[in-house]
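assembly run, all chains below
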Amino acid sequence: MKAFTYERPGTPAEAAAAVARRPGAKFIAGGTNLLDLMKLQIETPTHLVDVNGLGLDRIEPTPEGGLRIGALVRNTDLAADARVRRDYAVLARALLAGASGQLRNQATTAGNLLQRTRCPYFYDTAQPCNKRQPGSGCSAIDGVSRTLAVIGTSDACIATHPGDMAVAMRVLDATVETVDAEGSQRTIPIADFHRLPGDTPHIETALKPGELITAVTLPKPPGGAQVYRKVRDRASYAYALVSVAVVVQPDGTGRVALGAVAHKPWRLEAAEAELPRGARAVTERLLAGAKPTHENAYKLKLAERTLGAALTQARA
Amino acid sequence: MPNFGEIELSRRDVVAGAAACAAATGVPSSARAGTGPEGPVMAKVSLTVNGERRELELDTRTSLLDAAREHLRLTGSKKGCDHGQCGACTMIVDGRRINSCLTLAVMHQDSEVVTIEGLGDPRGLHPMQAAFIKHDGYQCGYCTPGQICSGVAVLAEIKAGIPSHVSADLNARPEATPAEIRERMSGNLCRCGAYSNIVEAMTEIAGRQA
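ok done. output:
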């Protein structure tokens, strides 16, 4: 690990300023992903700004009837919150499907959104990777790609967003609140928060340098039956091969988002119009234009079947 | 205990000393010029470990695990993978189990840390330690400190009503069933495969608590 200086600022705006004024500075919250990447020298920050003491760890009701989740709320606390369990079950289920108990106790809401891909070539510093080293090439496209993206990919990158929580946040139409070094705040819809790789796969989110996430806000509960279904290589503590978040209303309408198929949680509102016609019709629309590799083409069928199972569960 | 002339060393001293040597040689002589600090950056942190206040001055890179093992000589917590995958380093920090290899010691100013040494000792075993012995919940023992710290915290999480992936009803009170224990312990790997005996040990303690 490279040496770094360390500070604990007093306010969110001070934290944003501390990162904005120092190239090579990074925020640290739970640290479960960042420290792992620092040990491998994939991340090499020269200065760490610890945001754990900023009081961003509360879950509060909003005037609109939703919930405002502080950036530092731990995954365990969010999944265990009585309001989340009752009104946003798809979010509680997604969180509980991810990582291990130890990691959920430490990992934060904002950090979960910002976690990096688990593409094996991103981790292998001996191989080219446009995300780790822009311009070096992509080893995955003709390499081991079984777990990687099938849609929204580019010639530069086929990595996925690996998380579960963000898929539920996408189906719930969450918004991300931030503050920058000048203290000005803005709100980013979750649909616009994660980017597709294009020719700049190292830029993963809409955040500007130094911009700090302060909260993630959920609109009022969508009701309906909410299901998060995750398919993985083992029953626990593994990344998704495909995951599905659905909210299905009694009249058959609903929302669908897929995880582990793209560089961001994958949702197309137009595809949801096909819900009355079933899983095949929805996934045909949702994954139209997919460009899988020979190793991960199975994900197209798996997505359809996982959605089918999720819809059956939701309508049971 | 071997006797090296006048110096008496236990196996534990040798192991801890070797780790300290490895750590010292692992420090880079210089960081990349102009991109960051030239050498190690030291910072002070004070925290409570197993009920005792400890003041440390550490390289900012020191994980909580390395702080315990190499600076406090608490070698019970083990370094398995050092990447949060195996759970051998599990400690209970401010009442919650975490991977101590994936957190910096300097992030724990005023934290209350409990390691396996703080749960019990040979003269006064923690009930979970006794249950692991009774049910043969280990073979080589390397993962055992993490398993036991995790096991104690898992039963507390169930008691606190925190749901898991296998809880059928998110809004019902979870129970310490074998399925719940297995799911919640999935962050602790055991290459000897003592899992079923670990479940038995935890089930006995859960039953006693109820």
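Chain B touches chain A through 50 residues (CB under 8 Å).

The beta strands of chain B are 3-4, 7-8, 42-49, 52-59, 90-93, 96-99, 112-114.

not gonna interpret more than that til we talk
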